[in-house]
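Hey everyone, long-time lurker, first post.

I ran two proteins through the pipeline my lab uses and got sequence/structure pairs for each. Pasting them in order. The first:
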Amino acid sequence: MNHPKISIVTVVYNRVDKIEQLLSSVMEQTYSNIEFIVVDGGSNDGTVDIIKKYESAIAKWISEPDEGIYNAMNKGVAMATGDYVEIIGSDDALVGKNAIENIVPELADYPDILSCTEYIVYPKEKRQRIMSNKHARDKSTYKGGMVGHAAMFAKRELFTKYPFDEKYKIVSDYKFFLQCYFDKDVYIKYIDTPVVYFETDGGGASTDKVASWKEDSLVYKELDLPFDNERREKLNRPFYKKIIIKFMDMLSITEYMRYIKLLYLKGEKHNCKNRICRWCGRNE
């Protein structure tokens, strides 16, 4: 497989202010064997006009209502014909013109999944940090946790075996990874090459975290995985520790400390060469 076909799938709904950055980063890739698929959920804010602007670089696209993000992802994967599928969010962008070309040599030994790294971008601060996949490389020490989903290249047939479970609204991509991870017939290869800029809002609202935690727990139970034990241990902390942590949370101290650590001790200023980048302030 010297020149594998890479299907890049993007799902979008009402992202007129962000999607052009992603579209341009895919269009300008130096690797030629790319199939770009866009699944729009029936946007009414001008997103479809931006998609049409880049239509020459898009192999297939549709705009119609869907039943949620994972329903849209399943639609996109069903349209794909590539050897490998990469799913990138409409808020994100590839890391430079050579992003795909740089990782294709790593597919020469036919991994079922190639897990690369990605930059987590904090848009307000215009800073970024690397999301590593090192925590998942050793099954004997793995305690759960997602790798960069937008930086994963998975063989297309894996999505037939493990389609996105549409009953989950937040963590179905994590379930997909866990199913593949514990499938003895799936070979996952890990590399340190960053492929994607992944935009975050800094961690999301606390209600989103609780909802995500609840879905994680359901997935662990469904797949009979032990990772909830660590959370149960936290719930069994001595009462005085719970009070201290609760007080710090009320003052937003713990979140603030984590935020400072990620951005200023482990992060760096965002600086890229993409033609369009809203974090750098380039529109054309």
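...and the second, right after it:
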Amino acid sequence: MSSLPWVSCLLSLALAAAGCKPAPSVQVLGESTRLADGEASPRQSAIFDGKVVRLRGARGETLGVSLRISDGQTRRVRLQLPDAVRVTGFSVRSLDVKEPSTDMYGPSRGAGSYPDVLTPVAGADVTASRLAYFDVEISDAALPGHYQGELHVSGRSFPVELEVSAARITLGREPLVWVFYLPREIARAHGLPDVDTPELLAQEGRYHELFRAHGAFLAADLPPSRFEARRPFMHDVAYWPVAVDTSSDAAIEHDVQRWLELFRGTGITPFAIPVDEPQSADARRHARHIAEVIRRAGGGRPGLCVR
């Protein structure tokens, strides 16, 4: 009798057993994995085989490591690495997503509660019942090679192997990612008025430094009247977002000429998004008209770009 039916039956049983295998109660994941609260952890991880955590990065790079807890038990977590690597632990809070991103930004995991807010913890331990997060900041001066550490999880220890390559990333210069914000959001979070006071600018400066340390730059497309106070934030970039008053052709011309004056000699190109994602034919015609007025007022590359 042919053995093929038996082989097929055994394979089906094996696959069924694998499908019934529960998700691990504790899983270690990289920073690119974002799961909704209550969603089962993946059984496999790109950086953890259940025994050893394996990381790889360049000098000057910051890696993200999260420990996800699925059984609801509270655990104390500590990630230790040599002095050439600075580890910062964070507690994690979730936010409710009511309206997911559109298809323009790729597939979405849908509405739900997602971990999103990181709060640095004092000391070396993170106490968590759902998620603990760590920044692994590799020193710019670290020697390439193999580094060893440990991940401690409530009495259990897992070896951590970090491979540092010879490549070097200088995050503070020429960041590739623009992160949009509004001063009023920072003002509200810190109980300040939305006025360009030294207190508000100091708070904004803290956020700018945080984002620069992670390879991004924080910038708001503000009107010319609010730009000068934030000029110190504009460094080591090729482009900077600005706002153009589109209430009339005269207002557009005024702002374009003012931006050209403010950016003259900086080597940085301002850009504006006067109409964001025009959907209807009328909105597209309006966006085109604004672009034409900006061009007549002296805008366009290399002075003032319009997106």
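Reply from user beta_strand_b:
Welcome! Quick read of the second one: The two ends are 70 Å apart (CA to CA). Residues 4-20 form the longest helix (17 residues).
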